[in-house]
Amino acid sequence: GEYKNDSSKAKNEVLELVTDPTKGNVEDKIRLVIVFCLATTAPGADVTEVATKMAESLESIASSQDADSAISFTKEDHDKLEKGLKAIEYLKNLRSLQMIPNISEAEKDYATASTTNTDMLSNFMARATNQATGLLAKATEKVSTMFSKIHKHRAT
Q1: d(Cα 139, Cα 66) in Å, to the nearest integer?
Q2: How far apart are CA 44 and CA 76, in angstroms?
Q3: Would you say 97 and 40 are in contact if contact means Cβ atoms under 8 Å apart?
Q4: How far apart are CA 11 and CA 76, in angstroms?
Q5: Which of 49, 55, 61, 86 has the most beta carbons within 10 angstroms of its beta carbon?
Q6: Contact assessment for residue 81 and residue 29, using Cβ atoms and an 8 Å cutoff
Q7: What is the phi/psi pair of residue 41, to 5°?
Q8: pLDDT digits (tens, 9 = 90+) for 23-63
Q9: Comparing C-alpha atoms, which of 67, 58, 62 is closest to residue 19?
Q10: What are the φ and ψ backbone dihedral angles of 82, each rounded to 5 degrees?
Q11: Residues 50, 44: Cα–Cα separation, whole Å
């Protein structure tokens, strides 16, 4: 993605989205924070900050909403937020224990494995070519030797 080596830029973009009351619902915001947690190498403190600001933003909607407000925050939304925050905390703990790799580490591992596989294939093909060339040279030599021993007898 665009934020491969810039977790602060990713953090700022995610913060902007999760604190904007006009963008998405509670579930969307929780999913975005979870993706941020899994897809970046951002420190746990950044993930906590993003989750906390998201919760504060949503709670401020709940405290400031009135009957004719277009944006609402229900009891059900509050329950979803609580469960989402627990899920984010759980992922953060797993990540700190290195129980789950983040996506950028997985991409590095895949790239390394892919390069290793490519190198192995290249080495195999080079060895196979050398062996085939050697076998062809030996076969050519044997055939040449056989033909040189054949004497042509001409009938007169």
Answers
A1: 92
A2: 27
A3: no
A4: 27
A5: 55
A6: no
A7: -100, 20
A8: 889 999 999 999 988 888 888 899 999 999 999 998 888 77
A9: 58
A10: -60, -45
A11: 10
